[in-house]
Amino acid sequence: MRVTVFRGAAILVLGVCLCLAAPGDRGGQQNSEEAPPSDHFFSGMVTDYTPVTLTVRRAVLGKDPVRRAFVIAPDTTIEGELRVRARVTVRFITCDEGDRALHIIVRPPRKRQE
User: pLDDT digit string (tens) for 90-112?
Assistant: First the structure.
């Protein structure tokens, strides 16, 4: 009987400690700084390319095609030869002027099966 009461009390104390230590909303301890924008990725075929903008179209079977335009900044890195109808993966952030490309990777063309 004593062992059962002791176990019950120990579990209750442990549960209270875990609830108090759980991360969550701390009344007055809010972080006033905004988090930096997170990176996103988008892959598809280049439909339009200028030195300052890039438009990529992604078509998935059974869904409507998605088209996104990206701003190419001077600090944007481009791996490979960027051209229309090239397959690309774009790492970007969303900011005030739109989606800004941070890194563009040009994928090699698919080999056709004969």
Answer: 999 998 888 999 999 999 877 77
DSSP state of 90: E
Distance, CA of 75 to CA of 103 (rounded, Å): 9
State the DSSP H helix or E strand holding residue 12, giving kind and residue range, or none if neither.
Answer: helix 2-21
In our burial notation (b when 16+ CB lie closer than 10 A, e otherwise), range 40-68 reads eebebbbeebeeeebbbeeeeeeeeeeeb
| Cβ–Cβ < 8 Å for 87, 54 | no
In order of their start, the domains of the chain are: 40-107 (2.40.50.320)
Residue type, 54: L
Q: Is 65 left (phi over 0), alpha (psi -120 to 50) or beta?
A: beta
Give yes or no for a contact between 9 and 17, defined as CB atoms under 8 angstroms apart: no
Structure-block tokens of residue 74: 């001077």
- Which pTM was predicted? 0.65
